[in-house]
Amino acid sequence: VPAYSPHAVAEHTMGLLLTLNRRLHRAYIRTRDFNFSIVGLTGIDLYKKTVGIIGTGRIGRAFAEICRGFGMRVLAYDKYPAPDFEYVSLDTLLRESDVISLHCPLMDNTYHLINRETIQKMKDGVILVNTSRGALVKTDDLIEGIRAHKFFGVGLDVYEEETPNVFEDRSDEILEHSVTARLLSFPNVMITSHQGFFT
């Protein structure tokens, strides 16, 4: 649905990025317990950092405009280039980006686009955000990369195992064999429940 809430999704993407960067989710929980320590909450200035946007449709373009407002350099990768972007190869985008955001459709050639091989090409300390389709990311390889300290943060509004979870309250259940539970165990991972469109 090309025109469905492109700004809502783009804004949610930036919300995930800001939350991960400044550890807002952890700071919120701490201060509710009257713990005002800032140890472990160090972020980076997004200003002058490079964001790589994979997919420059309406949502990708809206997110790019938000990033430009933060003074970020925007690199783009898309099979169908649009005006006003600095397009580079996927390898260049992976190598040069401080932040990588996925905004492409799920097709045969994008299935598991983010995998062990592409993760190894990324900068150490990269932030990855996916508000597009869960299967763009191979979850087992992502978890391997998180455990290897490749990522400063990972923000997911979509993920491979989301189907039984989205829009459901499973707070009283024990998720014994869940990769979602494994992802949620990492302090630098932020997951939301497919709410990017929800304005």
Question: Largest sheet, if any?
Answer: 7 strands, parallel
Structural class: alpha/beta
What series of H and E elements makes up the topology?
HHEHEEHEHEHEHE
Please give the number of β-strands: 7
Which percent band covers the strand fraction?
15-25%
Q: Termini, distance in Å?
A: 16 Å
Percent of residues in helices comes to 25-40%
Number of helices: 7
Descriptive account of the structure:
With 199 residues, this protein is α/β, with parallel strands linked by helices. The chain has 7 helices and 7 strands, in the order ααβαββαβαβαβαβ. The protein has helices spanning 6-22, 24-32, 58-69, 90-96, 116-121, 139-147, 179-184, and strands at 50-54, 73-77, 86-87, 99-102, 126-130, 151-156, 189-191. Strands 3-2-1-4-5-6-7 form a 7-stranded parallel beta sheet, with helices on both faces. Helix 3 (58-69) links the parallel strand 1 and strand 2. Helix 1 (6-22) crosses helix 3. The longest helix has 17 residues, at 6-22. The protein is globular and about 50 Å long. It starts with 5 loop residues before the first helix and ends in an 8-residue tail after the last strand.
What keywords describe this structure?
199 residues; alpha/beta; seven-stranded parallel β-sheet; 7 helices; 33% helix; globular
Secondary-structure blueprint of this entry?
Layout: H1 6-22, H2 24-32, E1 50-54, H3 58-69, E2 73-77, E3 86-87, H4 90-96, E4 99-102, H5 116-121, E5 126-130, H6 139-147, E6 151-156, H7 179-184, E7 189-191
Helix pairs in contact: 1-3
